[in-house]
């Protein structure tokens, strides 16, 4: 056996199988194939090996033996050479006589943080403007607005009840009765120009008009095609906003007794949200600064594993919308290989950050307790309401608990880095 160092935390093993090892594997292949192949004149599993070899061919028998022999010799070799392998490596057959394998073994990554405690970054200051508060007040007014029926023609911002049908050629592509439609100028739902086409309609009026689907429309059959619409206006309503007074504040929440208290409360809520975002951005910058000064070595396969993780999560989200990965790729006009390459920069960044955060956890003695995991599960379950208890069982499975532990540990690491970057205490984390 030859052990050769390779770049990027890998070693290469040249493994030559001993004749007795090949023979042993051939016997195993014989026993396996004899149970799978029907040979005339023999009961399954009872044909002698020479007969089976003539029937399937010596090369096929050897292929079967080599397929199982490679992983066996690989496991044996890394034990004999005391190689700290990071998962399964790649095994290639180099020669058939003698049987020779080339195994590329990924090694555990090396992470050197450098002087991470000297990183200093100031978070972005958080400012809440009067305009932001007033915009929120206006949104709350809209939520408490009344819609009053009107006898006048449709105007912008009205709510119209429609019977609506759209057709391309002889094919009906949309049909709905009693559709509630808000006439918003410039809106592109269901297509550009649609809300403008309704303006001026009278109650009970039937109006026909033609608009075209955009050239890049998701359904290629309809892209760029003219669509004939027939709309019947059944009811027209105008929005009546409530007065901007103390009664509005009390309607929003019983914790506000005046409009001034509502504005003050909204400003505090906006500030809290901005503080959360600013803190997250500050922590992310600290991680990026840490990655820049850290020394990292890791095998390329770790990036492939991270891409696999991203793809699994992507497939899960698509499945929630009843879309297969194959359908998604067809819509995007790309291959699976192209998608993997597009994800590679993201996967590499995520991996590098995960490695340094793991090292920070080790250096700072950060841990996640069972009580913290359980508290996180309880919070998630409570947030889901009636569906929460059904989800609890899934969250308590080992893999789910492990994922929660990693997430919580990552949050602790980010918080610690953020604290250090602000000039916080440099002693061990408590």
What does this molecule look like?
The chain has helices at 19-34, 49-56, 58-80, 130-143, 194-198, 246-252, 259-293, 301-320, 325-332, 336-364, 370-383, 388-395, 398-421; strands at residues 2-6, 10-16, 90-96, 99-106, 110-112, 146-149, 159-168, 171-182, 206-212, 226-240, 295-297. The mean pLDDT is 91. It has four domains: 2-108, Trigger factor ribosome-binding domain (Alpha-Beta Plaits); 146-240, Chitinase A, domain 3; 298-352, no CATH class; 365-430, no CATH class. It is α+β, with helices and mostly antiparallel strands. Helix content is 49%, strand content 19%. A hairpin with a 2-residue loop joins strand 3 (90-96) and strand 4 (99-106). Helix 7 (259-293) packs across helix 10.
Mean of pLDDT:
91
How would you sum up the major sheet?
Answer: 5 strands, antiparallel
The structural domain count equals 4
- For the record, the CATH class of the largest domain is Alpha Beta
Radius of gyration using CA atoms only: 33 Å
Helices and strands, in order, run as EEHHHEEEHEEEHEEHHEHHHHHH
CATH superfamily of the largest domain: Trigger factor ribosome-binding domain
The poorly predicted ranges are none
Number of strands: 11
Strand content: 15-25%
Q: Give me the secondary-structure category.
A: alpha+beta
What CATH calls the topology of the largest domain is Alpha-Beta Plaits
Shape verdict: extended
What count of helical segments does DSSP give? 13
The CATH architecture of the largest domain would be: 2-Layer Sandwich
**Distance N to C terminus:** 49 Å
Helix content: 40-55%
Tell me briefly what this model is.
This protein has 430 residues and is α+β, with helices and mostly antiparallel strands.
């Amino acid at each position: 056996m030859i052990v050769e160092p390779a770049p990027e935390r890998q070693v290469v093993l040249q493994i030559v199988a001993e004749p007795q090892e090949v023979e042993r594997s051939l016997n195993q292949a014989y026993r396996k194939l004899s149970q799978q192949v029907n040979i005339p004149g023999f009961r399954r599993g009872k044909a002698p090996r020479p007969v089976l070899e003539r029937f399937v061919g010596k090369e096929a028998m050897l292929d079967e033996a080599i397929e199982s022999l490679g992983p066996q010799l690989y496991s044996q070799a890394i034990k004999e050479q005391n190689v700290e392998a990071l998962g399964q490596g790649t095994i290639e057959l180099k020669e058939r006589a003698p049987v020779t394998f080339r195994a590329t073994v990924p090694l555990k990554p090396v992470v050197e943080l450098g002087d991470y405690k000297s990183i200093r970054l100031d978070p972005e200051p958080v400012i809440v403007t009067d305009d932001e508060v007033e915009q929120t007040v206006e949104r709350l007014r809209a939520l408490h607005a009344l819609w009053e029926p009107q006898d006048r023609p449709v105007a912008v911002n009205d709510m119209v009840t429609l019977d609506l049908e759209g057709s391309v050629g002889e094919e009906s592509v949309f049909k709905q009765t009693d559709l509630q439609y808000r006439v918003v100028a410039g809106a592109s739902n269901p297509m550009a120009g649609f809300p403008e086409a309704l303006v001026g309609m009278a109650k009970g009026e039937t109006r026909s008009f033609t608009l075209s689907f955009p050239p890049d429309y998701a359904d290629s059959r309809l892209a760029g095609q003219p669509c004939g619409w027939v709309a019947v206006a059944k009811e027209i309503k105008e929005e009546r906003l409530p007065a901007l007074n103390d009664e509005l504040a009390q309607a929003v929440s019983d914790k506000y007794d005046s409009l001034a208290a509502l504005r003050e409360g909204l400003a505090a809520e906006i500030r809290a949200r901005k503080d959360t975002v600013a803190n997250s951005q500050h922590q992310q910058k600290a991680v990026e600064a840490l990655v820049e000064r850290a020394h990292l070595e890791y095998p390329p396969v770790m990036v492939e594993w991270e891409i696999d993780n991203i793809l699994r999560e992507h497939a899960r989200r698509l499945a929630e919308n009843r879309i297969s990965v194959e359908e998604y790729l067809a819509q995007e006009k790309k291959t699976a290989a192209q998608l993997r390459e597009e994800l590679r920069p993201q996967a590499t960044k995520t991996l590098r950050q995960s490695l340094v955060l793991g090292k920070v956890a080790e250096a700072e003695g950060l841990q996640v307790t069972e009580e913290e995991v359980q508290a996180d599960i309880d919070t998630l379950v409570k947030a889901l309401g009636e569906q929460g208890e059904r989800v609890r069982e899934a969250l308590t499975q080992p893999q789910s608990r492990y994922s929660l532990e990693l997430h919580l540990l990552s949050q602790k690491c980010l918080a610690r880095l953020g604290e250090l970057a602000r000039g916080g205490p440099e002693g061990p984390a408590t």
